[in-house]
Design a protein that fits this description.
Helix content is 54%, strand content 11%. By secondary structure, it is an alpha+beta fold.
């Protein structure tokens, strides 16, 4: 039996992979995950609007983003002390907690680590759900071995299972542990077929080139740390989802991933706490 709450929970579990980094919806989600959780999981509308204004998002766009996040089960309206605002839903808090190890602690496979294979046979009557399953598995870094057969590191198994369950497709899906894949040619050649490594490499390079000077800010105020770090984080948080963290022997030579991973880690170490400090101070002043 389904409940009225399930659609909202599913929406939060599946995350908003369609939001373009730098857009109002994407930045709103980044601010919620990085800062609103830190200030009590609730934010006044006026404060939230001001935070996004600092990031270049006008108030009308913020209102539109809030409406989208409410419809996806990420926020719900809640007034506190006579102030209108929004609280994070339980499902959203679960989603953000699940994303923290990816975004703030890039996961990397080692040689000999376990894989998971996922096979499905979904009837035509569930075509829309099947389409969503493919999109969502790809969006969390799963690779396609063949039609209806996916591969991913074992550490992605919980997330893949959550997607299957949210789409009500458990009856059509079977998964297996796997080790030592035997493939035609090399593992490096197989990985290039199972994942779009060219696009992923381009994302790493673009990120690195755009933010490579973030550690050399002239203005090191907490406010400037918030602006620069949040814009960087908003772009970065997508990459650890689509990058499964393949072992070195499956990656092309001169893979750009380590440089961008290190840059994001260094920026977080330097700017996350000053950014949160500025947000806390801004909210307390309002």
């Amino acid at each position: 039996m389904t409940t009225d709450q399930e659609p909202a929970i599913a929406g939060a579990v599946l995350d908003d992979f369609d939001a373009r980094p730098g857009s109002a919806t994407s930045l709103a989600r980044t601010v919620l995950g990085a800062y609103v959780r830190d200030i009590g999981e609730w934010v006044a509308i006026a404060d939230f609007t001001e935070l996004l204004t600092q990031l270049g998002i006008p108030a009308p766009s913020t209102r539109t983003a809030i409406t989208r996040l409410k419809s996806r089960g990420v926020l719900h309206a809640e007034s506190r002390d006579g102030r209108a605002g929004y609280a994070l839903t339980d499902a959203a808090l679960t989603m953000f907690a699940r994303g923290d190890p990816r975004i703030f602690g890039f996961r990397q496979m080692n040689s000999g680590d376990t894989w998971r294979l996922l096979s499905y046979g979904i009837p035509e009557t569930e075509r829309a759900a099947r389409h969503q399953l493919r999109r969502r598995l790809s969006a969390i870094g799963c690779g396609t071995v063949a039609p209806g057969l996916w591969i991913y590191p074992e550490y992605l198994a919980t997330e893949a299972s959550a997607i299957v369950t949210a789409l009500h497709l458990d009856d059509y899906v079977t998964s297996f542990h796997a080790t030592d894949p035997a493939v035609p040619g090399s593992l490096r050649q197989a990985a290039a077929q199972w994942w779009d490594l060219d696009t992923l490499a381009a994302a790493h390079r673009t990120f690195y080139e755009r933010h490579r000077n973030i550690l050399d800010l002239d203005d090191t105020s907490d406010r400037n740390a918030f602006v620069r770090f949040t814009l960087m984080l908003d772009e970065w948080r997508i990459i650890p989802y689509v990058d499964p963290g393949l072992p070195d022997e499956m990656l092309p030579h001169n893979w750009p991933g380590p440089a961008s991973v290190q840059l994001s880690a260094d920026a977080r170490e330097r700017y996350l706490e000053p950014s949160r400090r500025w947000v806390r101070a801004s909210v307390e002043r309002s």
